[in-house]
Specification:
Layout: H1 2-34, H2 37-53
Length: about 70
């Protein structure tokens, strides 16, 4: 029984570590892609088109008191 618990604990630690490393890898990849100039340009175009279609959209930003205005 002790060997089983020890094996389960070691497996959990190794699995959690691998999961965290994979998560960090995905975050780095996302940041690298989202910072790319082509992606930034496309995002700007999309934002402009959304603002055209939704006239009040640009004015719905959060005000200084934390409420939508």
């Amino acid at each position: 029984m002790l060997k089983f618990l020890l094996g389960a604990a070691v497996g959990y630690v190794l699995g959690a570590r691998a999961g965290h490393e994979r998560y960090e890898q995905l975050v780095r990849t996302y940041q690298r892609i989202s910072d790319h100039p082509a992606v930034q340009g496309a995002a700007g175009v999309v934002r402009a088109r959304v603002d055209e279609k939704l006239p009040g959209h640009a004015h719905a930003e959060t005000s200084t008191n934390g409420h939508r205005g």
